[in-house]
Specification:
- This protein is 80% helix and 0% strand.
- It contains 16 helices and no strands.
Length: 395
Amino acid sequence: MSKFDPRIYLFSLGHFSVDWAQGAIPALLPWFISNCGLNYQAAGTIIFANILLSSVLQPVFGYYADRVSKPWFAPAGSIIGGLSIAALPFVENYAAILALSMLSGLGAAIYHPEAARMVNALAGASKGRAMGTFSVGGNAGFAAGPAFAGLCAYVLDPRLLVAYGAVNLVIALLLHRVLPKAMRDIRCGTLEAAARNGGAPLPAQNDWRSFGRLSVVIFARSITFSSCMAFIPLYWVSVLGAHAQTASLSLTAFSVMGAVFTYFGGLLCDRLGFVKTMRVCFTLLIPALALLVNAWSLPAAALALIPAAFCVFSPYSATVVLGQTYLGKNIAFASGVTLGLTTTVGGLFAPLIGRAADSFGVHAALQCLWAVAIIAAAASFTLKTPKALEKKPRG
């Protein structure tokens, strides 16, 4: 098997497809509010419904994938995610919007664990680079999703959201085409690795204590990430007085920087180490979020997005790789938890922050974000670097 399998780029594209569908929903919140008469709490609940189903089911599908591989989950997840967004402009009631939001979450839940497991298997010795590439696909999706959704809803025609279904269908067909050979190569690679190990099963261990500590870090990060994705557009509109289209562009900018910083974070891990990178980023996240949620002008808020995006997205690949390494016997399950279940906390906080925004204003409600960053920073200092990921300096 090659040092870096180019099919990983296709799985990254599939990651893009499910996350650009999920990324469209926060950008559409102002549109839902104006067209359906929703309050902030109801809008936050839409995010909650999407994230809840996605995050809770990902470990379930991951647990199943560790035992009986179902490669077709990957293209199926892409199709489901795209069709759910494509149907949104043709429904008008709140219940239907919630249902489609949950369907989008189901698509993500099906895709992530199986795709992450296959990327890990195809990566060989280049797991860090492979997971960074896979993660960038998702961040790019969260960047493109709000941009295109905002363009459709506020400038062109909401019915153009059907493009999400068309694009995802094409990507799903490409994934389906490469799956048979990919599975054969994975099986051959496993047999070759076992032969090099004297024919014995490859050693793998589960360190549940370290994985639990890592989960606390990701819980705290997920609150900041989900809240930023849900409430940055509303902060731009209600506090800074920006137009809804400008608000959706701010979310796009945040996600575009996230895609760049996710890849940069992987390189930073090679220089500093996975755990040290997390400690630096989450410590800097405290002042970064304090600046963001206290900006009182559009230029200041735009500048504050840069350090906030760096600190939120740079540790992303590190958390996934650490999780897969801590649970070496259950890689898909670990992927489902690190990519999915841990974000439930962020989704649970969305309606709570929305309710606080209804009562005290968006600006006051978002002050909790930099306080949550303190928890993430403190928990990161309890982590240890597993032997398999000890820093190896590169020339």
